[in-house]
Every structure is written in structure tokens, then in C-alpha cells.
Design a protein that fits this description.
By secondary structure, this protein is α+β, with helices and mostly antiparallel strands. It has a single domain (4-84), classed as Alpha-Beta Plaits. 27% of the residues lie in helices and 36% in strands. It has helices at residues 4-7, 15-24, 37-48; strands spanning 8-11, 26-31, 52-60, 64-67, 70-73, 77-84. It has a 4-stranded antiparallel sheet with strand order 1-2-6-3. Strands 4-5 form a two-stranded antiparallel ribbon. It is globular and about 55 Å long. The N and C termini lie far apart (35 Å).
């Protein structure tokens, strides 16, 4: 069993994430690449003390980038879209 604090990397503050939060009570977070939906749900419920209804995950491959002659690759990422149960609320930034 992994530590729940290492599964969730960081919240993602994007325009799409803000729309999902306001309209559908969903959160957007970056998670470890090898975390599954059950791990993510357990981590969110334990850390933030909220009830999770559903977890959807999206894995993206890093893009290839050039800087002059050098070529490199950005890291692969995995994000989770977490749907909270009705009546639950979670604010990462208070007063914003």
C-alpha cells in the first residue's frame, strides 16, 4: 500500500478545470502515472475528508521539443477528473 500523500502530485488550475468545478462539482489534479482509480479515490477522501462519486483518468504522452540542435521530450503525465458527491465542496484556494 502506497502513501496517499504521494499519489496526488498537484492540483491543475486551468480554464477547463475552473469550468468543471463551477458547473459540475469536479476537480482536476495531476497524479502519479502508476496510480489507479481506486488509489486516487482513497487518497482524495483521506486527505481532504470529502466523499468522491467518480474518478476519470487521462494519460498524456510528453511532446517532443527542439532547442536548436538538441532534441528532448517533455515528461509523460496522468491527470484525474474527480467528481464529488452532491453537497460536497472542496476549495484549494480559500478566499480566491
Amino acid at each position: 500500500m502506497r502513501n496517499v500523500h504521494t499519489i496526488i502530485k498537484k492540483p491543475l488550475f486551468t480554464e477547463k478545470g475552473a469550468r468543471l468545478k463551477e458547473a459540475e462539482n469536479k476537480l482536476l489534479v495531476e497524479v502519479m502515472r502508476d496510480a489507479n482509480k481506486v488509489d486516487i479515490k482513497r487518497a482524495i477522501e483521506e486527505i481532504f475528508k470529502v466523499k468522491v462519486e467518480k474518478v476519470a483518468t487521462v494519460s498524456t504522452n510528453g511532446k517532443w521539443k527542439r532547442q536548436g540542435k538538441s532534441i528532448g521530450k517533455r515528461p509523460d503525465r496522468k491527470k484525474a477528473i474527480i467528481t464529488l458527491k452532491k453537497g460536497e465542496k472542496l476549495d484549494f484556494i480559500e478566499g480566491a
